[in-house]
């Protein structure tokens, strides 16, 4: 016997168990555990698409509940590649979902979609709420910082096309260019420079983006490419 529906989902119960439990006790539908996670949080976290779809059809489902860390089910779904874009869009389009909510760390759905490289979701979020592109988390990072750091060139290009702040610095003075080179994503760094990134901008310790590229081979490759393409660094 499971202590809660959330625990049952964590332990890989099937849709039949979920349906039976909720039918017998409607209170289990939105019941939260010690981490304030609801069954919808756990269904998204464990990638149980059929359970997510079933829960969303319940008229009294609470879709925008936050867990202890401030994550909504939508945020959890975005970070799980097992949840398809189409289902995430279904959640986003609900009238009872606020796509601008933030976690305790200040991250939005756009931060997570950008960091996970989910371009279709990034597009939808920007279309519905253009201001998200400028939202900073508690470390001062915007979505462009996340995409550049993790290495998602298509997301970076899209965000740039939406006029996101190109040279914005986070709390440590890192720009998207700093993140790209620090993580060895030279292709993204080139795109940023071509878009007008300031190569001389320094972080709070006085380091340029090139300074924080610690891998010598990657650094040299980047320098050579810039020379070949006539880019001033």
From TrEMBL:
Naturally occurring in which organism (per UniProt): Schizosaccharomyces osmophilus
Sorted keywords for this record are: ANK repeat, Proteasome, Repeat
Q: What is the designated name of this protein?
A: Proteasome assembly chaperone, gankyrin
Family matches, as Pfam families: Ank (PF00023), Ank_2 (PF12796)
Any single Gene Ontology cellular-component annotation: proteasome complex
Mark the ANK repeats by their residue spans.
35-57, 139-171, 172-204
Q: Which PANTHER family match?
A: ANKYRIN REPEAT AND PROTEIN KINASE DOMAIN-CONTAINING PROTEIN (PTHR24198), ANKYRIN REPEAT-CONTAINING PROTEIN-RELATED (PTHR24198:SF165)
């Amino acid at each position: 016997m499971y202590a809660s529906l959330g625990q049952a989902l964590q332990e890989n119960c099937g849709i039949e168990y979920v349906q039976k439990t909720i039918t017998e006790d409607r209170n289990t539908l939105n019941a939260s555990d010690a981490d304030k996670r609801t069954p919808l949080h756990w269904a998204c976290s464990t990638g149980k698409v059929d359970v997510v779809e079933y829960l969303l059809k319940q008229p009294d489902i609470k879709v925008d509940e936050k867990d202890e860390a401030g994550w909504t089910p939508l945020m959890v779904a975005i970070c799980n590649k097992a949840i398809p874009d189409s289902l995430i869009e279904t959640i986003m389009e609900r009238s009872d979902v606020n796509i601008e909510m933030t976690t305790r760390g200040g991250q939005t759905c756009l931060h997570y979609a950008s960091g996970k490289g989910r371009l279709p979701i990034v597009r939808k979020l920007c279309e519905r709420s253009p201001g998200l592109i400028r939202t900073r988390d508690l470390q001062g990072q915007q979505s462009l910082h996340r995409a550049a750091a993790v290495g998602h060139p298509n997301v970076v290009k899209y965000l740039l096309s939406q006029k996101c702040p190109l040279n914005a610095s986070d709390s440590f003075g890192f720009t998207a260019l700093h993140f790209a080179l620090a993580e060895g994503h030279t292709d993204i760094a080139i795109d940023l420079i071509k878009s007008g990134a300031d190569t001389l901008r320094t972080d709070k310790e006085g380091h340029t983006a090139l300074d924080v590229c610690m891998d010598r081979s990657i650094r040299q490759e980047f320098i050579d490419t810039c020379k070949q393409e006539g880019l001033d660094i």
